[in-house]
Amino acid sequence: xxxxxIIIGGGLSGLILGIILSKEKKKVLILEQHSKAGGxxxxxxxxxxxxxxxFHFVSELGKDRxxxxxxxxxxxxxxxxxxxxxxxxxxxLIFPNDKYDLPLGLDxxxxxxxxxxxxxxxxxxxxxxxxxEIKNYFVYFNRDHKGDIxxxxxxFDTNINDFLDEIExxxxxxxxxxxxxxxYGVPPKETPLGTHAIFFNALYxxxxxxxxxxxxxxxxxxxxxxxxxxxxxxxxxxxxIITKDKKIYGVKTSSDxxxxxxxxxxxxxxxxxxxxxxxxxxxxTFTDRIEEMENTLSHFGTYSISNGDINLPxxxxxxxxxxxxxxxxxxxxxxxxxxxxxxxxxPTTRLGKSKDEHIIETLSIDDYKNYKRWEGTKINKRGxxxxxxxxxxxxxxxxxxxxxxxxxxxxxxxTYSSTPLTNHYYTLSPNGSIYGIKHNVNQMHAPIxxxxxxxxxxxxxxxxxxxxxxxxxxxxxxxxxxxLGDKYLFKKIDDSI
Length: 497
Known about the structure:
Elements: E1 2-8, H1 12-23, E2 28-31, E3 43-46, E4 49-52, H2 66-74, E5 82-84, E6 91-94, E7 99-102, H3 106-116, H4 121-135, H5 149-154, H6 160-166, H7 171-178, H8 193-203, E8 208-210, H9 213-227, E9 231-233, E10 238-243, E11 248-253, E12 258-266, H10 270-274, H11 284-292, E13 298-307, E14 316-319, E15 342-345, H12 347-351, E16 357-366, H13 384-404, E17 412-418, H14 420-427, H15 441-444, E18 457-459, H16 468-484, H17 486-496
Parallel strand pairs: 1-2, 1-12, 2-9, 6-14, 12-18
Antiparallel strand pairs: 3-4, 5-8, 6-7, 10-11, 11-12, 13-16, 13-17, 14-15, 15-16
Helix pairs in contact: 1-9, 1-16, 3-4, 4-8, 16-17
């Protein structure tokens, strides 16, 4: 069988694009190298508990919000049970001498910040106004499909740090505004104002957990794909994108199978995708530019089981060893640091799904270089030195949890962990990069586009426009618009409401 579109990778963006094209009666095949779909949305199970590796919450799903608009078109919302975070206190930021309990909603945040920093009222108002204004530049982030492409591009010229200095934000105010940069993986000194604005608008909309987590989301997407006539195959790792006379012919997998198709879409890291071509089909300047692009750093995750009768917070906690958010990217958790950034969440507390035991998950910034000595080893067979190194880092993190949430001391029973090597194994992302290509000022001046100059070859996924669930979902629609036409696609979505 010859396919209209072969999509490499069954992560969020690949699945969404597959559904959109399948709804257009295209013959779509998604090939996933792992035994199940999901990419960074994978869950795993231990001792009867489900742990999330990448999914922790999703924003922009409230009524009239942009992700609600797109996911409704995909036909998945009715299959998801959304659990809202507490709008009055969804996150706590802990700094050396301060703790801030954040509300949802930009207007609520503005009032909260003015109450804490009354002398900076004008600065806070300027910031919130600018953040709202910038969102209106981005066509795909607005349900009325209006925007300003020139102002959108201009918003990438200034970094968020410089903008906050320009409006004279104090050190502590800046630390709050920049605190969530980890969720897109770029230090503030490198982050475009536009990137931070889009992220900030999404974060402070109503955010939700999903009952069943990433597994439930992926299940809903796969069901929609199949319902609309698409196919997905697992354990099919692409080893070659085949071209003939600089035209797309199909793909070859590690099982020596050939799948023919007129178009191929890569939802994996662009650097990996370009390495799959054996024929020279792109100009050297194009491949060199992508090869030279920086990826984001990776992360170290811990997944613990605790006694259920302790008083765990239902809000997420972000702990910082410093008020300078840029510094957390240098304090790598597996290096010899006693203090480091840590994100803590307990979904069972928030969801109310466990009385006897709870789970606690953490994420901290890590670097693949510290694991390079075990490169090429197989999962669960990396040797005693690796396990000891991993255990040492896990113990540092658990000790930090004890200090941040004293009730946990003596009440954590089991802890599992993941490293940049784990991330690379399951996603093939170079060096276990958590958010793919870094969306910094330099690289956003010439970002990777969905359509390439090779007819029939496209990119999608978090390396293109924005990472995270919102950004990656929207990127799939951007790629679909390049294929189908934006006016046509927007009309189809509008007509489905």
